[in-house]
Amino acid sequence: MMPHDPARPERMRRGTVGMYALTLMEKEGAVHGYRVAERIAERTEGTWRPGPGAVYPALQRLTERGLARRKAHSLSRRREFEITPRGRAVLDRVRAFRGLNRARAPDLAALWAEIAGVGEIEDLLLLRLQRSLGGLERFLSQPGIPRERRQRAKLLFGGELHRFLSNLPELGEAPRRARRGPSPRDL
Fold it and tell me: Beta strands 80-83 and 31-32: pairing type?
């Protein structure tokens, strides 16, 4: 058994800052620490905004590991960082690993429900669903989202909801084996 490490959640958060910074560099080009914190706050709907004491050490670790480099000749006073080929390779490996292991990965929701002090697993799963649906609704209601993307999301969600409802057992029935609905790749 591993010894208890109270700093582990903080290290996980710092790792998340670094990986998200790499992702942002890949998408947007060179970024500065404030931009990383700003995007994390946007993506978490303001529930988490890492400060400079979390962002700049994460960027420094990326630089030390050769995953990012400080941009030369930046006209801005801000320190800007850009992704390196090695950083891109790390993101590729993370994405490939996630894709390969998605079906095999255990669902740890029951453990997290207990850790978080949520009474029953269905309460945690319902909370996740509510948050996901709220996030999807906020995203799709933003100006500038193409109509096709909204329609695609509605189709996917409608298909998943129908699949879910049709797989629920009636009272007194044995649970049915879930059927897979259409994936985003199917559309």
Answer: antiparallel
User: In the 8-state DSSP scheme, what is residue 49?
Assistant: -
pLDDT digits (tens, 9 = 90+) for 75-114: 667 789 999 999 999 999 988 876 655 666 667 777 767 7
Phi/psi of residue 114, nearest 5 degrees: -70, -45
Q: Quote the strand ranges of the chain, DSSP E.
A: 31-32, 68-70, 80-83
Go through the domains of the chain in sequence order and give each one's CATH number. Answer: 8-101 (1.10.10.10), 109-186 (no CATH)
pTM, whole model, 2 decimals?
Answer: 0.60
Range 41-74 burial, b when 16+ CB lie within 10 A, else e: eeeeeeeeebeeebbbebbbbbbeeebbbebeee
Q: Which two tokens stand for residue 135?
A: 């996030």
Contact 26, 91 (CB under 8 A): yes
Distances (CA, A) of 50 to 123, 128, 132, 186: 29, 23, 22, 37
Q: Are 179 and 163 in contact (CB under 8 A)?
A: yes
Q: Which two tokens stand for residue 7?
A: 């700093």
CA nearest 30: which of 60, 69, 67?
Answer: 69
